[in-house]
């Protein structure tokens, strides 16, 4: 019979030093082993071993020229993790911390997240250790073109469909898609997150943040509660954070923080429409720093700090992995936290996650609560295949019902006899079941 520590030892040996990947595998397999204990078919087909080995990892060099004509060399990867239920699908990340281990953890998580959406999409992730910060527009353009010169060999509308992630927004997707189209001489839906003028879906930009809040709504509805007047702390001020903030405000919550890697703004009055438009322009158009919000609206700025010392009812980590450590989780609990839902991928460290799961706060893992982004990417693929564009209302309705369904699946597999829902357990089992059963159906190899 599978033994958790033995399985994890093998994963560590085969993936030495990749601590985020080890963490992600442990988080899933802790729930899966008890679930499959009386189902020997999974062990017989070596499903756990197969699920931790990506189908393939492509690594390549990206050479590009800066504005001073200096040549730079970066590394890029595409981790095609698992295509059992559909073509590989997942974002591209541009950040200096990117390496194969980080992308493997993200691709592993993506595989189960995509399964939860009920759409036919497999799991992948990619990116580069390129740092977009401080680069000119023409440098970003040249980097994106150079990356696509190589990446185009491995992707396609039925093979692997990338999208954005940290450091890759509308601008980068446009440059990547433009070059892909040129190189292949085909107009296909191979990349999602495209602009609406050339095959993008309405609501894709907003989808991860909106989906996160829809998921939170579903969690609160279990207790006949809602977001009205809840004090919400959000980290990050990128794509996920901004639209989580907007939807939370729309539903009557008071959002008091946003952050970036330099610090946190604490706006005790709450972010309103005018302030939101300012920060949206600051981040999406001017690529500015969050401190400028504090300067503009004279609120508190916590230099070099995360938002987690600030009391709130609901915490939404929307920046990056392991941004909520054990001591932050303890502080949040001490300050009266009632719910934490992950907008980022694995933003809570392993010990913080354990503490939250063992406490009586509501806790949602990213693979469930941030699945709205990839879900609308899936809807973008459908629209591209149909050569149609659905209205914002139609996409938003579908997003809401996908998030509701994910919540239902978490409940189905995560609810105990007392009616408490372990969302992590529910998401892990539901995601695993779909992918693993497809693998079983294909036979032993
Ligand atoms: N975009 C999407 O559709 C989806 C994204 N996600 C996940 O959500 C998270 C955020 O992604 P997204 O909003 O797209 O990315 P963006 O690049 O748009 O924004 C990222 C934000 O997080 C901050 N941040 C990034 N790295 C760090 C760090 N090491 N320490 C502190 N702050 C940091 C950034 O600050 P700064 O600018 O200073 O670096 C920025 O404010 C990621 O975990 C991503 O994987 C999950 C599902 C879908
Ligand atoms: O839209 C996509 O394909 C990917 C979104 C993503 O990267 C994620 O869900 O983490």
TrEMBL record:
Pfam families given in the database record: ELFV_dehydrog, ELFV_dehydrog_N
GO function term, MF aspect, one: glutamate dehydrogenase (NADP+) activity
Lineage: Bacteria, Pseudomonadati, Balneolota, Balneolia, Balneolales
InterPro entries per UniProt: Aminoacid_DH-like_N_sf, Glu/Leu/Phe/Val/Trp_DH, Glu/Leu/Phe/Val/Trp_DH_C, Glu/Leu/Phe/Val/Trp_DH_dimer, Glu/Leu/Phe/Val_DH_AS, Glu_DH, Glu_Leu_Phe_Val_DH, NAD(P)-bd_dom_sf
Quaternary organization: Homohexamer.
Database matches in PROSITE patterns: GLFV_DEHYDROGENASE
Homology family: Belongs to the Glu/Leu/Phe/Val dehydrogenases family.
Keyword Transport annotated: no
Protein name: Glutamate dehydrogenase
UniProt entry keywords in alphabetical sequence: Oxidoreductase
All copies of domain Glutamate/phenylalanine/leucine/valine/L-tryptophan dehydrogenase C-terminal, residue ranges: 201-443
